[in-house]
Amino acid sequence: MLPSLGPMLLWTTVLLFVPCVGKTAWLYLQAWPNPVFEGDALTLRCQGWKNTPLSQVKFYRDGKFLHFSKENQTLSMGAATVQSRGQYSCSGQVMYIPQTFTQTSETAMVQVQELFPPPVLSAIPSPEPREGSLVTLRCQTKLHPQRSALRLLFSFHKDGHTLQDRGPHPELCIPGAKEGDSGLYWCEVAPEGGQVQKQSPQLEVRVQAPV
């Protein structure tokens, strides 16, 4: 009479469901949008392999603890800045019947791309114009090619006062420059409806008396 195979079959079945820890990427970290630009709402998600349930989720940046959640696998990072760059990872308890074990994801590099460089303010034809001449202040910057459809708004300031609040024109004209127009000027640029704002270095304008 052949021996019963019941216990052996049961043991084989259990082995098929025990995960091979260390050989399977049980967790992985997703960051979106991709690519990420300054001002984008950056979101991280700690995802289990084949949507395996997770708990006790922890997020890390550059190896340092960032956030803990008992159940939520998603972390909102707010508006991305250049300082948001880094190596991100997550850990969590993976619930895989018949056991629960803690796993850590591989690191994911998050690169936050510059939406546009800081503007540069110039005075045309010169920052030392003759009294009575026309001076044009030009605020120059350029959107990243992948975000070229955005609309930039420009502001002009002098000695702590606003000359032109946010508008679509990157130039400001000073007709008939006079001595009172001398001073420190700068401009600010921001995308319409966005959270990124950048300021130019100050430019000193000195109106010269006529010869």
Automatic annotation (TrEMBL):
Instruction: Cite the SUPFAM superfamilies for this sequence.
Output: Immunoglobulin
Gene3D superfamilies the record matches: Immunoglobulins
BP GO terms, sorted? cell surface receptor signaling pathway; immune response
Q: Which PROSITE patterns is this protein grouped with?
A: IG_LIKE (PS50835)
Q: Which UniProt keywords apply?
A: Disulfide bond, Immunoglobulin domain, Repeat, Signal
Q: Where is the signal peptide?
A: 1-24
Q: Which domain of life is it from?
A: Eukaryota
Q: What is this protein called?
A: Ig-like domain-containing protein
- CDD domains named among the record's database cross-references: Ig2_FcgammaR_like
For this record, the Gene Ontology CC terms, alphabetical, are: external side of plasma membrane
Gene Ontology MF term list: transmembrane signaling receptor activity
The UniProt record lists the Ig-like domain at 19-102, 118-204
A Pfam family matched in the record: Ig_2
